User: Fold this.
Amino acid sequence: MERLGELWRQLKFIFRRGKFQQELQEEMQFHLEMKARALREAGMASGEAGPAAQRQFGNTLLLSETSREVWGWNLLETAFQDVRYGLRQLRRSPGFTLVAVLTLALGIGANTAVFTLMDAVLLKSLPVADPQQLYSLGADDNCCQMTGMQGDFTIYSYPLYRYFQEHNPQFSQLAAFQAGAMPVAVRRSRGVEAAQPYRGEFVSGNYFQIFGISAYAGRMLTPSDDRADAPPAAVMSYRVWQQRYGADPGVTGSTFVINSKVFTLAGVTPPGFFGDRLTGDPPDFWLPIGTEPLLNGPVSILREPGEFWLYLTGRLKPGVPLAALQAQLTVELQQWLRTLPKLDKGDRKDISRQRIIPTLGGAGVTELRDQYASGLHLLMVLAGLVLLIACANLANLLLAKSSAARTQMAARIALGATRARLMRQILTESMLLAVLGGAAGVAVAFLATRMILLLAFRGALYVPIDATPSLPILAFAFGLSLLTGVLFGVAPAWVSSRSQPAEALHGATRSTRDRSALPQKSLVVLQAALSLVLLAGAGLLTRSLLNLQSQQFGFQTRGRYIVRLDPSLAAYTMERLPGLYRQLQTHLAAIPGVLSVAYSGYSPMRGENWSSEISVEGHPDEGYKNEFLPWVSKTPSWVRVSPRYFATVDAPATGQGYHGTGHA
Amino acid sequence: MSRTEIPPGTLYLLILKTLESGPRHGYGIAERIQQLSDDVLTVEEGSLYPALQRMLIKGWVVGEWRQSDNNRRARYYRLTPAGRKQLGLELSEFQKVMAAITRVIQTA
Assistant:
């Protein structure tokens, strides 16, 4: 009961703080006057009595402070005071505040952006069930279709997939899916809309089961969809369903025309599922592997044992040792490879070196992750350096500022302020700056993340990575700004609080420079060193970029344009292609300003080539060695080109000097 | 003349006791203690006012503004029933300790 009364009185105090101060003042004034009168009555000269009373009484200001402290609101009150005072200080020097906040925003923003991306790309697993049981067969990410030996196998043919499925009971399930999505042209059967380009991916019937994905609407594919006699079915992504079909519940069960073949739409994937890997423009449609012959017709690769084009992911039964699994898979692979027809001698010799390394597949086939991990780590180091420099810079600015305010500090100490109180006040000011910088930093981070994603996924229409900093990331940014506040606030606070009261009397900052000189100098050195590292890094990057830009490809890039087209999407058959290409060549050449037109199977700069069933005379087995890069064993490759091709890319095609694919 | 600080822990007791005979202002309390102790005990203003604040929180005294003898406004502290109870407690506690100390001094 007593405690309650105390609390009540303490609470009431908050609302009458102003009155309290005034009353205390009056009370002490009264006390002083009474004292002075007593002294005069005791015979002291009236001019001396007042000062003498004051001397006996002591520091009025300090006494009123300690009297206030009794009420227990001291910490809160002074914090509030400090914040108000700090804001006033910041407003008083807008230039300094602006520079400080911008510097911090850059440092904190860069770090938050990098961590947002790292969180999205490196740390987030696919939204799948029990990802710790999922293993990908192969650690690398070969793409997208190849023949011959791979060393560490990553992509497989359909017959090889079926072989593993039959021989490996350790997997409760083994799914296959196309490495690299393909363009598809899709339209709804009824209605008059033209076919739109989308991304499609062939997947085995158990693909959605193994990832634990259940349908948002309709049903997902099942193993029965893989059977040759099953009616063609397809699954649509949630995003396409929302954006292109207005979330129409009638799409499931209706028919769609995909590459001029009729499919029934089985269902819609749940939101947040972006396929088996993290890439720009994830698949919009998933099609059963069994429909590959239907779509690809005469160039179907489903039954080709030597055409590798599928990633395999298995759900491992509990308790299976990984080493034994790896050994068994490798043995099976080598046995199976020996049964392959049409293997040349070089490949046959290499069979004993082929192996399969199962890797945890919870994060999907981590193409994007591998691609960007090192880049992100570099970015993280750079962002960290930027923040350090920002801190050093700010600490230095604050040091300079506190040197200027030194006389003021000395005066405050002379008036009875404790050093701890002064330090707290200066730290509060730094914290204020840090929090302001942190808030601006989040805005910078938001923009920077967008920008990095735009750069990383150049040309992608849709990026399945959320550029919005998540709550933990925001907490991280806030913590980071507080930490920087402490980091760059401590030195100036310490230096300021060392002021001697006597300095206030001297009125000069004579000794000031000497004391803060050491920390200030070391900060400048640190800053210069860090900036040099950053500058050197930036210089090297720019240099490499320039080198890449002026790289010699063996053909001209200036004034050349590449058009890619896939006539099969418009139901062109093989027989009609030569006519189409010749027609296109004439039409394009007729456009004013076009000097020359040619076509080829692979365009320059695409980085793809065809190397099967070709060898150089005299080197039938191992291909030929590249004379400049002797450690690289190169097999010859070939490209189908039209007349005027070499003239169009302006590559000299004399003798053996042509490296026309741009993929040397 | 050397002045003696008030023994620790007895400041509340002294203030409560001086207020028993009627309300006083801060200066009056200090004067009264000094006077009654024949100038032996001096209450520092630096401890008097914080102590008064603490007693306000505890509810032992209440402050009231009224005219002083010389027609000035002053804050008078008045004992509350809780303060009177506290005075009793402090007194008996002090007497217990005093008696104990006396016994130790006389026998040792």
Q: What stands out?
A: The first strand of chain B starts at residue 4 and ends at 5. Chain B touches chain A at residues 25-27, 31, 44-46, 49-50, 53-54, 56-59, 63, 65, 68, 72-75, 82 (CB under 8 Å). The CA atoms of residues 46 and 52 of chain B lie 11 Å apart.
